[in-house]
Amino acid sequence: MRLRWLLLTTFLALVMSAANPAPAAETVWSGLVIADNVPEPTAAPVELKKFEQTLRELFGYNHFNVIGESSKRLKTGEEDWLASSKYFSLRVDSRGETPAGYVLDLKLFKEKELLLETEAKLSKSSPLVIKGPQVGGGQLLLVLIVK
Amino acid sequence: MKTFEEKWTAWLDGQLTGKELDDFEASLPDKAAAEAEKLEVQKLGTLLKRELGARSFSNEEFFSHQLRERIARETAQARDGAKSTWWTIPRLVWTGATSLALFLICAFVVLHGTKPVEQSEYLTQILNMRVDPAVSPNATISVFETTKQDRVTVIWTEGLQSLPSDYAAK
Predict the structure, then answer these.
(1) Which residues 54-73 on chain A approach chain B with CB closer than 8 angstroms?
(2) Does residue A119 belong to the interface with chain B, where contact is any CB pair within 8 Å?
(3) A17, A132, B118, B154 - which has most CB atoms within 10 Å?
(4) Where does chain A have alpha helices with state H?
(5) Which residues of B fall within a CB distance of 8 Å from A96?
(6) ipTM of this predicted complex?
(7) CA atoms within 13 A of residue B138's CA, in its CB half-sphere
(8) Could you state, in order of their start, the residue ranges of all structural domains in chain A?
(9) How many Å apart are CA A131 and CA B164, to the nearest integer?
């Protein structure tokens, strides 16, 4: 009889916790990625693993190399950060949180030259990939993911 | 002074004695017929005692019988009453808990069932995008989402200035 009550209570607690997930601070990963074709590609960075196949099919490259990255844990939803490589920098200005994710201002610079500017609502369930300029035999990609 | 009927009844019951008995028997017009009638009455009394004795109760026995009958009747009624009441407290509690659990399961299933629709609203949205026309005058921008499960939102640019491989440095 006690075991039944325990099981029932546990079950109800699980159902309640699943129905009302507690809000938590989330991390946005932003990366500058060079996609190219190499004879023996190494494993994709862990952040890209989930959609590596999609990237391969979209851009036609078999190798993805992170040249600059930043992981920012958002607490207020209004933080700024920078992911940069030697020549490129991606400036991210978070302008607030929505139920679906975060409103971000993105600016891609080549050294001090602004190449691209975007305002996006980054969803927790949908990574954002921006096709940047051609770099040598490869392609610069900007990737933003809510972890 | 006793009447004849009273003396007659007492004589039949054998309760007359002594001079009273002698006087009464002397007053009978036909003593032989009276004796015969007395014998018949006694036989009848014996018969009645034998036949009715088994069914008759003494006061004590009758009271006990009534009491036992009443207890049995009330016990049966109480048992019948308990049987007919299915909604005992533990059953009520269990039924309530089960109903609540079923409701939560249904709510959970319904909420999960509607999630795919909500998810499409929760894709990354591009509110604004711009390429510096001075740097890349022929650049074009388009946006699409992949139909795969990972639901990647892509900003696809064309016509950006190509750069040498040195720019791939970390």
Answers:
(1) 54-55, 58, 65, 67-68
(2) yes
(3) A132
(4) 2-19, 52-59
(5) none
(6) 0.81
(7) 6
(8) 24-146
(9) 16
Cβ-based neighbours of B169, under 8 Å, separated by 6 or more: A67, A85, A86, A87
pTM check: above 0.80: no
Closest residue to A67, CB basis, from B111, B154, B170: B170
Torsions phi, psi for B133 (to 5 deg)? -65, -25
Rounded CA gap, A71 and A26, in Å? 10
Which sign, positive or negative, has the C-alpha torsion A31, A36, A37, A41? negative
> In terms of CA atoms, which chain B residue is nearest residue A67?
B170
Cβ contacts of residue A2 below 8 Å, gap of 6+?
none
- Judged by CB atoms closer than 8 Å, whether chains meet at B163 and A133 is answered as yes
Domain boundaries, chain B: 4-56, 87-122, 123-161
At what angle are helices B18-27 and B4-12 packed, to 10 degrees? Answer: 110
pLDDT tens track for B78-94: 776 656 677 888 889 99
DSSP H helices, B28-129, are 31-53, 59-84, 89-121
Closest approach of chain A CAs to the CA of B110, in angstroms? 11
Output helix, strand, coil percentages for chain A, rounded to the nearest 5.
20, 50, 25
Query: What length is written for chain A?
Result: 147
Q: What residues of chain A lie within 8 A of the CB of B165, using their CB?
A: 135-138
Residue of A nearest to B131 (CA): A116
Give B83→chain A minimum CA distance, Å: 23
Which tens digit of pLDDT belongs to each residue from A19-72? 444 446 788 999 999 999 999 998 888 989 988 999 999 999 999 999 999 998
Pick from A144, A143, A141: nearest CA to A34: A141
Whether B145 contacts B123, CB under 8 Å: yes
Q: 3-class SS at B98?
A: helix
